[in-house]
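REQUEST FORM: STRUCTURE PREDICTION
Request ID: SP-0412
Submitted by: Lab K.M.
Chain count: 1
Length (residues): 459
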Amino acid sequence: MAPVSARVLLVDDDDGVRRAMSRYLSKRGFDVVEAPSLAEAERSLGERAPDLVLLDERLPDGSGLDLLPRLRTALPHVAIVVLTGHGSIELAVRAIKEGADQFLTKPVDMEALLMLVARLLDSGRDRRKVAALRGGKRPAAEPFFGMSPAMRQLEEEARALVESHRPVLILGETGSGKGVLARWLHARGPRADEAFVDLNCAGLTGELLDSELFGHEQGAFTGAQRAKQGLLEVAHRGTAFLDEIGDMPTAIQPRLLKVLEDGRFRRVGDVRDRSVDVRLIAATHQDLRRLCADGRFREDLYFRISTLQLRIPPLRERPEDIPALAQRLLVDYAHELGRPLPELSAAGLRALQRHVWPGNVRELRNVLEAAALRQRGGAIEPAHLRLDEAASAPAAALAPADGPLPTLAAVERAHIERVLAAVGGRVTVAAEVLDVSTSALYEKLKRLEIPHGRALATR
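STATUS: Completed
RESULT:
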């Protein structure tokens, strides 16, 4: 599983644990260097840089956490895992804040550790590649952050099918990271050097979706002043990601099925077939089998895209991942905006773990970013998070205290305005929160007559 050159520095004062882990990893191709203390670890670092560090939190000559800042400064692209027999939320948050990539509580499951080490080594190579090509820009977030059993299972299943060319169906609630997982599958698969294109089927009308997917010829419809390639042509030999495929109009579904079965399609307004070779990754938060029963989704298309399936667990099913995930999101926020890293109080963290997160990781990120903007110098507390307000807003919109019930358009307008206000009028960010394309959101703003001059100015 590991390349021969992968060097692991294992720092642990428990001889039995250290030797057992060393034997296990060595048998699987890793070059393991053992160190029973901080002093020995630093001496080893001076001889040759490792690719990954397994660092015990409690050592005879100090805390492993004290070594973290020096490790991260000297070796910015090396993966670091902190190990401890005395796990706590506060300790996990501190470890991640100081620069650890993961935090594990002993006793460590060896198979889970092996999977984690392999994944972090992959991420380390990505960090080095991105740093060399783009001047140190951080790579996109990976989809398996956290060590809950549900995420370990997802990672194992994803790795098992990453080399396949067959379609994959990703199931998951809004904001759970379906797009992130799709990009990961493409980047690790046999088409990684080719194009990756994505399209949200929920954000486009039937005619527009038809044109976006398959392209059109000049004069095919009003406004088609010149011929245009569709996204499937752009993705030739690469990957096409169709988000919310359950919202695809039934009239378009047979055309997509033909692409999957024969690799052929026609542009809108064209009379000749074109050939294309794409791997399809589809995603939805809906029950496609129920849509098939209701006549809203073709069974033959469902069977074609659903042979390989991955389900992303919602955040409420893995609260144990929230501390490290929250800290990672805050680190990303600080890095992107050039701000100091916000602190998260213990009370704030408990509030995050109690919340049900209907918007999943996307909602967590937006809540933390908004809280970081409200926070002024101190730690992020529950009051900064405003989770009660977020949870009650939809209910208040749908169940007014008095007066007639609002129309669907009124509810949609109120929700879009609330999201725009929360993200400072940035349409692209609001579209992400609402899980629609930016173009679709602009269409809604026009249809609902929502002023967005500020949004345009701040894009």
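NOTES: The domain at 150-311 is CATH 3.40.50.300 (Rossmann fold).
Reviewed by: T.R.
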